[in-house]
């Protein structure tokens, strides 16, 4: 998921000076004004919000963006390598595309059960706590998944 920033809304770089941001705001506001573009109220409102935020409290906004970036980089809180004995299953289910998928179940330390699709590489959020797992499904033919 990519966050749309106020800089994106005004189509300027985060390093742009205030004159550049102001010019971009005027250009975007003229192009999206509801009098010129019926149905563009939401876009115009977003442009207004972006300008007001960057004009009034740009430093705090930049700090917030930096914090969000750092948090997204540190998203995974627990890396796990799973073997058969760590899980229950397998179970075969049909996914949204109608494909058979092998699913194993892993119990988080909080007690909630996580569904792990074989071959899935996305981090898995535990619904019962704040842990986010990066799970490596071991494919070794001996005793691993």
UniProtKB/TrEMBL annotation:
Family annotation (SUPFAM superfamilies): Chaperone J-domain, CSL zinc finger
Entry superkingdom: Eukaryota
GO terms under biological process: cellular response to misfolded protein
GO CC field: endoplasmic reticulum membrane
Molecular function, one GO term: Hsp70 protein binding
Domain J, residue spans: 5-65
Name of protein: J domain-containing protein
């Amino acid at each position: 998921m990519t966050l749309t920033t106020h800089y994106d809304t005004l189509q300027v770089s985060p390093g742009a000076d205030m004159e550049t941001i102001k010019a971009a705001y005027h250009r975007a506001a003229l192009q999206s004004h509801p009098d010129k573009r019926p149905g563009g109220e939401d876009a115009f409102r977003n442009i207004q919000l972006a300008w007001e935020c960057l004009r009034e409290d740009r430093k705090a906004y930049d700090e917030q963006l930096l914090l969000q970036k750092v948090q997204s980089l540190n998203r995974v809180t627990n890396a796990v390598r799973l073997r058969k004995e760590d899980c229950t299953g397998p179970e075969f289910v049909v996914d949204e595309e109608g494909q058979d998928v092998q699913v194993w179940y892993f119990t988080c330390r909080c007690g909630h059960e996580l569904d792990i699709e074989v071959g899935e590489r996305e981090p898995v959020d535990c619904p019962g706590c704040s842990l986010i797992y990066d799970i490596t499904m071991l494919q070794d033919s001996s005793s691993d998944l």
